[in-house]
Amino acid sequence: MSSVFSKIIAGELPGRFVYRDDTVAAFLTIAPVRYGHVLVVPIKEVDKWTDLPASEWLHLCEVAQKIGQAVVEAFQCQRAGTLIAGFEVPHTHIHIFPADDMSGFDLSRAMSPEDTVPAEMDRAAEAIRGVLGTDDQGRS
């Protein structure tokens, strides 16, 4: 069975994409610690990041760094936080989020999907895409 991330990447579920190439997709999470919280995900469904081929892991990290730089610029935050957990969805993903303190590093404090404001989510995605120069599907 496909992961929820595979379904988002395939267009079976909606997603606010900010980046996409042939091996990686990046989209906003539905449960952000802060608006602008992005998940960077390999297209290939691999549960643990340690099981990715080294070249794919390197590319995933390069994209995560690029998104992190865009998040800092778009949200004028001190840093881009990053986490790798992987317990919530069995598909490798890197969390990237605006960070001005350590609060974002506690995923248990994330907003529920019901508590997010769709217009704020849209604005966050647009801000990141504006820095990256990508369209609403995350393509250059």
From TrEMBL:
PROSITE patterns per the UniProt record, alphabetical: HIT_2
Motif Histidine triad motif: positions: 91-95
Signal peptide: none
Active-site annotation: 93 (tele-amp-histidine intermediate)
Coiled coil regions in record: none
Residues of the HIT domain: 4-107
Alphabetized Pfam families for the sequence: HIT (PF01230)
Alphabetized GO MF terms: catalytic activity
GO biological process, one term: nucleotide metabolic process
InterPro entries: Histidine_triad_HIT, HIT-like, HIT-like_sf
Family matches, as PANTHER family: ADENOSINE 5'-MONOPHOSPHORAMIDASE HNT1, HIT FAMILY PROTEIN 1
Name this polypeptide is given: HIT domain-containing protein
